[in-house]
Design goal:
This protein is of the alpha+beta class. It contains 9 helices and 7 strands; from the N terminus they run H-H-H-H-H-E-E-H-E-E-E-E-H-H-E-H. The chain is elongated, with a radius of gyration of 38 Å.
């Protein structure tokens, strides 16, 4: 039987160290970089190469998406939860230089067509910058008769020429059927309705561009009675 060789503790330590030196050391693993989220384009990058109209449309769509999410009651029924209608209103407001809410409160969809309320027409006319100062109403005829009427008058800002809109009378309201509608405003608030309609006629006849191609309520058979106001509010 071969004789066992006894090693001293020092020799055993040296032997273990040599074995450890000869062993293969695994290469360190490089840390994995975290995945980078996709970079968002800046507004300048998004609109690069677009026309002014295209930029306005992009801006209108962005604002419309936010407005359509407003709680019920903030906007008229036509626009609540309707990003498409909101986008049209926002784009029109940008082109006209007026408040988005002004457009939404006065531009309705009646029978599928964008339609201005008659009460907004004077504001559109005065805001257009085409007339010096503010336009004025002139009542004509005798109050309480069919000849009582109103017309809107302005002064052209460039030429200084006096501009008189078409005259609207009680007789016209009766002949057109506005007076006798169910719930008609005409018998109850005759002077106010004469003024609203005179402004609408002035806008259509003297400066139709302020309407931006939209109708006025009376042109689609609305705006004369309470039930019509509720239908498209």
């Amino acid at each position: 039987m071969p004789e066992k060789m006894n090693q001293s503790p020092a020799e055993m330590l040296n032997q273990n160290a040599a074995v450890a030196q000869n062993a293969e050391v695994p290469a360190p693993v490089a840390p994995t970089a975290p995945a980078q989220p996709p970079q968002r384009q800046s507004y300048a990058e998004k609109v690069q190469g677009l026309t002014i109209d295209e930029r306005n449309w992009m801006l209108a769509k962005s604002k419309a998406a936010a407005m359509a999410q407003l709680p019920e009651g903030f906007l008229p029924q036509t626009y609540t939860g309707n990003p498409g209608a909101c986008a049209i209103a926002c784009e029109m407001a940008l082109r006209m230089g007026v408040s988005h809410l002004f457009v939404m409160q006065n531009l309705y969809v009646v029978h599928g067509m964008p339609t201005w309320s008659g009460k907004s027409c004077k504001a559109l006319i005065d805001n257009s910058g085409q007339f010096a100062g503010r336009t004025r109403y002139r009542m004509e005829g005798e109050e309480g008769t069919d000849n009582w009427g109103c017309r809107l008058i302005g002064v052209d800002k460039l030429t200084g020429e006096k501009v008189e809109g078409p005259k609207v009378t009680v007789k016209m309201a009766k002949d057109a059927g506005w007076w006798n509608k169910n719930g008609s405003y005409w018998p109850k608030m005759t002077e106010m309705m004469l003024k609203y309609r005179a402004a609408a006629y002035f806008a259509r006849a003297e400066c139709p561009e302020v309407l931006m191609g939209a109708n006025i309520d009376y042109e689609v058979g609305a705006g004369d009675a309470e039930e019509e106001g509720v239908a498209h509010a």
